[in-house]
Amino acid sequence: xxxxxxxxxxxxxxxxxxxxxxxxxxxxxxxxxxxxxxxxxxxxxxxxxxxxxxxxxxxxxxxxxxxxxxxxxxxxxxxxxxxxxxxxxxxxxxxxxxxxxxxxxxxxxxxxxxxxxxxxxxxxxxxxxxxxxxxxxxxxxxxxxxxxxxxxxxxxxxxxxxxxxxxxxxxxxxxxxxxxxxxxxxxxxxxxxxxxxxxxxxxxxxxxxxxxxxxxxxxxxxxxxxxxxxxxxxxxxxxxxxxxxxxxxxxxxxxxxxxxxxxxxx
Length: 266
Description:
Elements: H1 2-28, H2 40-55, E1 60-65, E2 75-79, H3 85-93, E3 97-101, H4 103-106, H5 111-118, E4 121-122, H6 130-143, E5 147-150, H7 167-176, E6 179-186, H8 188-191, E7 203-209, H9 219-233, H10 236-239
Helix pairs in contact: 1-2, 2-3, 6-7, 7-9
C-alpha cells in the first residue's frame, strides 16, 4: 500500500511543480531580473513547492531549530545529505536560497524550469572550466545577498551517517568572503533512504541550524569543523526511528542489550 501512495505523492510533486512554474512564469513578466535581481519570486515558488509536498505528508512532523542563527547573512549553507527529501524539507523550512546541485537532478522537469529561472547552479561534474563557472555564479548570488546551499558531502549517505565534507564548498565561501552555516538534518533517511522510491508517511524530521563558521585557516580544518558540528548535532532516534501512530510523541530511548558473559568450556 505504501508503494501505491508513493506513486500518488510523486505524481502530486510533479503536478504541483508544473502549476507553480506557470504561476512563476506569469509573475516573472512584471517581476523580471531588472526589477527583482535576486529572482525572489522564483525562490518563493521553490518554497511553496516544498511546503506543498509537506502538506501532503501530514503525519511527518518537521521541526526547525536555531532559525535565529540565520539573522545575518548571506551564508553558504552546508547541510548533511541523506535523502532526496532533504531538498523538499530545506526549501520549505529555510529562508529563500539558491541551490548548487547536480545536472541530473536540476534537469528533471518541472524542477529544471524552476532551477533555470531561479538561477540555481549546476555543479561542475568534470565540465571543463566548471569550477571557475560555479565560483563565479555562487559569488554573484552571495554578493546580491542571497543564501546559497550546497551539500558538502557530494552525495547522499546510504546509512544516515555524515560522510567527509569536501573542501570545494569551503573554498567557495572563502573566496566569496562569507561564513558557512552548518545545518543538521535528522530523520529524512528514515522517511525515504537513498535508492528507495517509496516514502514512509509517518515519522519525525529535525532541521537544526548551527552556529556560523568563519572561513579562516586551512580548508580541510574548516571542512572537518563543519562536519563534526553537523555530526554531533544529529539525533540518532531520528535516524533509526520506529514511529508509532503519533509521530509527535518522542520515542522511548533504546538501550543496547547487555553483553552476555561467555560460558567457560572445558
